[in-house]
Amino acid sequence: MLLFCGFSVLLVAVSLVAAYLPLAGNVKAERAHSIIALGTGIFLGLLFFMLLPEGIEECEEGGIDTHYAMYALLLGFIVIFVIDRIMKHKHLASCACELHDDDHEHKVVSTSFFVGLAIHAACDGLALAAMFMAGEEVGVMATVGLCIHKFAELFSLSAETMMSGLDKKKILIRMGLFSLITPVAGLLFFLLFSDMEVDGTLGLPLTFAAGTLLYVVTNNMIPESFHHEKGYRNLALIVIGILIMLAVALAFPHSH
């Protein structure tokens, strides 16, 4: 338990550092979109090089048909899609503004972005707890991987939220609250299910989480990356982000 709490603190610290980086200095809108583009590539790499392979491998170890993994992936995508549509519909129905400027639109997008990643972060908490339940050595290695995961997640979320026009203090408060979701959820799962056999049980939650991330990337981050972009710079940054995560995946290969 003490080791779990200690690594949870490390996870929060890494998250806060990543959240602060896009806010350092006065970042103009054009540069902010470039930061989001880099974060988009990092998220795509995280999704396809780490999260999905891990979820499918866990399903196979648990004797779960990989078709069910794809069902969970689609369910995660649809859940965030429905939440996003409901939020935007309610906003448009209640908003008195006839015209929506960029900051106004970004507030709506960043809120749905936050909700989608919050569900994803809770699933990360389940994975973190399960890894420590499987053994301290496995838990430590999982935390290292999750720190990389959270760095990418908070960096991108902070950059996206920055576009909504919120001041830095409010953004950091929001990021601080977000960074607590995974360790708090993990602690709850750890306390509730510490005596449970965990081998092969994480596949469906992980693929569900991958589905939520897939929606966030395709619906929010990719369009935002090319907002007002006329050249190929942000496309190149997305590719760079993917290559960064490929290098990380090759440098830290997963093994059970």
Mind sketching the topology for me?
Blueprint: H1 2-20, H2 29-61, H3 66-94, H4 102-134, H5 136-162, H6 168-193, H7 203-225, H8 233-251
Helix pairs in contact: 1-5, 1-6, 2-5, 2-7, 2-8, 3-4, 3-7, 4-5, 4-6, 4-7, 5-6
Folded structure, characterized:
Residues 98-104 have low confidence and may be disordered. The radius of gyration is 18 Å and the shape is globular. With 256 residues, it is mainly α. It has one domain. It has helices spanning 2-20, 29-61, 66-94, 102-134, 136-162, 168-193, 203-225, 233-251. Helix content is 82%, strand content 0%.
Instruction: State the shape.
Output: globular
Q: List low-confidence stretches.
A: 98-104
Cα distance, first to last residue?
A: 22 Å
The SS-based structural class is mainly alpha
Subunit organisation of the chains: single chain
Sheet having the most strands: none
Brief account:
This protein is an all-alpha fold and 256 residues long.
